């Protein structure tokens, strides 16, 4: 099984969906309940209105399952499949009221996730052949980090740390209160019984030399010029280097060609445009 496409934990997805449905439905879908007969049945299709990379089919299923467990959800495409105008991703059959009530939340999530996977795919294609890995950051939508990081994987990227708890990343903003790079790394190594990976952020070659001497696992080159990145790769030996800051689809190839192992891009999650999708319904009986 492709680990990039392993769906997020169903229990956590259900929790996100509950929150989203509560926010949208509140005390009830007044419009639908007032004008759509309770016995009306419908067939709906989720359709893409633009090109992209699909992500979030099972999440949209989870939405309709919570709205009405009796709805029939048929998945027609898989996460990671290529979308084009008119692509039909899934069909939903059952109570018309239920289809309408779940429509917006289901579309919001699958559109958002598909936008992230699509933008990630574009970055991955841009560095193809260089050996450089595209990674995300913690610049995610509050409450949706798990889904957005999954979408990054579906798009061909990899995840950086999930939160503040699963990796030590000493940022430049830590250094003054911590006493500098050497002091900060020493404190971590003395206190960290779990042996977490340690990464240090630097903004110039002088600090890179200091960080290299501390024996950290990875060094982030933050907002460093292309020519200095090339020098940094030569200086680093076998130490992993990660480039970050002001990286876009127009310059990411040049950054990758310096030889850095990783490029982290906040835009994957904070600036991805949702893929336009719709749910088209037709009544099929009462």
SSE inventory with pairings:
Layout: H1 10-25, H2 30-35, E1 41-48, E2 52-53, H3 57-67, E3 72-75, E4 82-83, E5 88-95, H4 96-126, E6 133-135, H5 145-154, E7 168-170, H6 172-178, H7 181-191, E8 198-202, H8 205-213, E9 218-222, H9 226-236, E10 240-244, H10 252-256, E11 262-264, H11 267-270, E12 277-285
Parallel strand pairs: 6-11, 7-8, 8-9, 9-10, 10-11
Antiparallel strand pairs: 1-5, 1-12, 2-4, 3-5
Q: Please, could you describe this protein's structure?
A:
By secondary structure, the chain is α/β, with parallel strands linked by helices. It contains 11 helices and 12 strands. A 6-stranded parallel sheet has the order 6-11-10-9-8-7. Helix 1 packs across helix 3, helix 3 runs antiparallel to helix 4 and helix 4 packs across helix 5. The chain is elongated, with a radius of gyration of 23 Å.
